[in-house]
Write a structure and sequence with these properties.
mainly alpha; 3 helices; 78% helix
Length: 100
Amino acid sequence: MDDDISKIEDKINLLRQKREKMKTQKAMLLLKEAQGILSDNFSYELVLSILKNSWGSASEKQKEEWIKSAKQFRRDSSKRNAKRIATPQSEVPQNTAENP
């Protein structure tokens, strides 16, 4: 019985590690998207400023539209990323907007 509990705990730990890895991958994709959009003007402070000011001054209707489009973007993005993650990094082209 202790062995079964140990196996379950191991699986839980593995899932936690996978969750953290997925969060890191999503963060990196967000970073690359922001870098691609802002190119030479990119900075973390600029991204946060744009986000804060845009969200703060947007109407409720605009916020709802962004939320709806984000749900669609997540579905589309996850399909693209599944293909991208499956591709070894050495084969990913380095001169695209997503890989500055």
